[in-house]
Amino acid sequence: xxxxxxxxxxxxxxxxxxxxxxxxxxxxxxxxxxxxxxxxxxxxxxxxxxxxxxxxxxxxxxxxxxxxxxxxxxxxxxxxxxxxxxxxxxxxxxxxxxxxxxxxxxxxxxxxxxxxxxxxxxxxxxxxxxxxxxxxxxxxxxxxxxxxxxxxxxxxxxxxxxxxxxxxxxxxxxxxxxxxxxxxxxxxxxxxxxxxxxxxxxxxxxxxxxxxxxxxxxxxxxxxxxxxxxxxxxxxxxxxxxxxxxxxxxxxxxxxxxxxxxxxxxxxxxxxxxxxxxxxxxxxxxxxxxxxxxxxxxxxxx
Length: 302
What we know:
By secondary structure, the protein is α+β, with helices and mostly antiparallel strands. It contains five helices and 17 strands. It is elongated and about 80 Å long.
């Protein structure tokens, strides 16, 4: 029953002040006027929905309008839609809706297609339920009405397509030197695969001498991978990543705990599924050169 609410509210709250994003700009003065009419419909619908008035809510559909929920359930005609809302309002009260309109296209002066994501929050303030939707608005006798509403399971936005080239790094890696120094780093996907989170630690004879965290993500403005690093000693910084065949060239800038600026070019090479190499060169502190770190090998432990 919740999917009914998600989708049926969505098309009607267009530009009604509930959206977390601005509604798409109309592409002509005429369309702007029609978008304003849809906004007026939205306000009226919200009033009817808040009152739990199933008859008034169903009246926004054409007489033969239809709704298909994400499970494939098909409701045809205003009478069946009213019955569905009557049952719903008797079981659910006090819900709040938000709409994220992704597009509004005027196919003809009397037909508009809208796509977006809607969310409904219960009175107890729990996590919202979300659904994607497509709605066809039609104008009849000067009044915009709902002709068809279809919803689908909500798929959270993901940057996986941009980050998948680093999927091989997911897991645990380690390096041990003959002098007793050990470096360990672990990477894992964040929720929805929008980021890769990493933790690292350096120990000397089983005593931790440094550590920190790193997050890798996609920058949609610069169209490139970036990372943000926070050391336990107070240093922090960011880097840009560029692929070169099986190598990643990482241009890094850090602010050290004493306020000095550190820069380097780090190179990570994906040797195979269980081995990588790492080196750091062109290293400077406040513009003055400091020794490079020669290539070290790391093996997968998990």
